[in-house]
Amino acid sequence: MNRLQFRLGSSTSSSATNLLSASAARTGSSSPVEDVEKEDNTVTVPTFHSAPVKRQSRFLAAMNVMRKQQELCDVELMVDGKAIASHRVVLAACSAFFHAMFTSKYTEAENAKVELKEVDSGTVETLVNFAYTGDIELTSSNVQSIMSAANRYQINDVIEMCVEFLKRELSPENCLGIREFANFLNSEKLHVQATKYSHENFTEVCKHEEFFEMSFSHVTDYLSKDELVVRCEDEVFDAAVQWIKYKKEERMPLRTQVFEKIRFPLITKGYLSTVVESDETMQDDSRCLKMLVSGMKHHLLDKEKRENIGIKDVKPRAKKHNWHIAVFSGSEPDTCQWFNEQGSAGIITSSGNKVKHSWITIPSMPEKRRDHAVACINNVVYIVGGSYLFPLHRIDCFNISTQEYSTLTVQLESARDMLAACACKGMLYITGGTTNHGSTSLKSTECYDPVKQRWFSKQPMFYARYDHAMVELNGWLYVCGGASGGACNRRPLKSCEKFYSGPNVLMNNRWAEIAPMNAARKGLGLAVVNEFIYAIGGTDEHGTLESVERYDPKQNQWKMVAKLPSKLTSVKCGVLNGSIYVVAAQRDVGRLSQVLEYRPAEDRWVFHYNVRAFNNSNAAVTVVDVCAVE
């Protein structure tokens, strides 16, 4: 049972403070000593103020002692035959309800005993104790009764504490019940929070009894919401079916009205033609069949044909995302994995907690390669170039949804390794690289259109480079560092440049030089966070670097930030939830053994001692959404 102790500041309640302040105002005195003014000669006497909060606290503590000893008590609250002695002034100061009662002309204002109905004595005792002490202990078993009573007696401080407690208690098992409870008590803050939670955690909420017990009107309203966060509409259909089957005889006649809230055109094609079509809830009903056909038409007809026959596009739900850093290394077992920052893969420890910072193995690549590059476009990872004995022309694709590989029929025009790849506006861009393990560096820029399945040559970079890094920011491609020259003159570069592909005619498909980095770097990591570009580690002409610098595109300026805990090169990194994670790298001696996290808001590195780094720094990484669907 969850338990939480609340204390209202240093005094018991704002009502008590206001009451004492009002008393002071009526007497016309604010302090024991006041400023004194005399005509002609003004003398200011230093004002002395005692600590009012401390004094009030002592005052109410004394009142509480008298209450417990039943001294000077002038009212008894009668609850279930039990008498709870108290002082009218304290209750009135804490509760607007009691204030109105005791200052009215009704008999309760004079009666020594006041009967309270529809509330239990334990709850009333808790509220009376709060009026004197400002302390209240809330648990999962008493919070609803206390909040209901506080709402009835208009004790706002207790209501706010209960709201905060219930916000912390929200879970997939109870959020719908808390939402209804908040609605019943007209608690807008709690209702908004519980509703938001039920939308954002729909896929878990719909597995629990509160969902199955929802009324017809409530479930149809819930299933109609645009804000439901789902991987795909398949999950909403499945939830509707499970709700119907939970009380099958009673709810089957309601299925049409329930299914009207499902967006059949957004159900995936495979699920629609297999699971949905064959489900018993869809059988023997012409209206259900019509909904199924509408979904099929959406998949079978292109947008133009749908518009011609009057089929409108359907608004999608809120998309559920689950970002991971995908690492592609080789064709051997466990050489391709993705890194899970938030433990959302569903791995549970023996203590019941989700695993945080974990690795999940995915299918290995069909061909060995190293010094390759990867980028993700529309839930497909493109694995480009690299080498195995010799540089490769081949491009493999990994479908995140099916976790299957395929090979593009259109290969690289020239085989290369140590290149950089990046996705921008649905296109795959590759830059630089070498044709013979660093003996010849390239300036080239090429773009692949996945729709047209064609490669296009773009303006080459200003500098030939390999072992560099490239990122996208606001439609611009940024290339930083690397090395140039042949086998005898491999010179690390400070230079950086940017490329734009967009409506700006002057800059379209052109490179422009930007400010060079403070340090030359090859084998660096490059990441974008909050409109800044971070260059991490690498190697210069003197050796491996521990420095990190940040580029501000608006100022065209690089600035040094917190150093790495150790010198690293061949840095492989990605951004998750606003942090940069270095998941693989090479030290001066050996490889990085544990994952590093950089927190830009704090400008500091965190060494995750219990999370291993990937064991091969020749891998390539990209960030993917594992909630992808076909």
- Derived structural class: alpha+beta
* CATH level 3 topology of the largest domain: Neuraminidase
Which residues sit in consecutive blocks of at least 5 with pLDDT less than 50?
A: 10-49, 344-355
Number of domains: 3
How much helical structure, as a percent, in the residues? 25-40%
Kindly report the name of the CATH homologous superfamily of the largest domain. Answer: Kelch-type beta propeller
| CATH class call of the largest domain | Mainly Beta
Q: Sheet with the most strands?
A: 4 strands, antiparallel
Shape: globular
Tell me the number of strands: 37
Verbal overview:
This protein is α+β, with helices and mostly antiparallel strands and 630 residues long. It has three domains: 3-28 and 52-169, Potassium Channel Kv1.1, Chain A; 229-318, Alpha Horseshoe (Serine Threonine Protein Phosphatase 5, Tetratricopeptide repeat); 321-625, Neuraminidase (6 Propeller). Helices cover 28% and strands 27% of the residues. It is built from 18 helices and 37 strands. It has a four-stranded antiparallel β-sheet with strand order 10-9-8-37, with no helix packed on it. A four-stranded antiparallel β-sheet has the order 11-12-15-16, with no helix packed on it. α3 (88-94) crosses α4 (96-102). The longest helix has 17 residues, at 52-68. Residues 10-49 and 344-355 have low confidence and may be disordered.
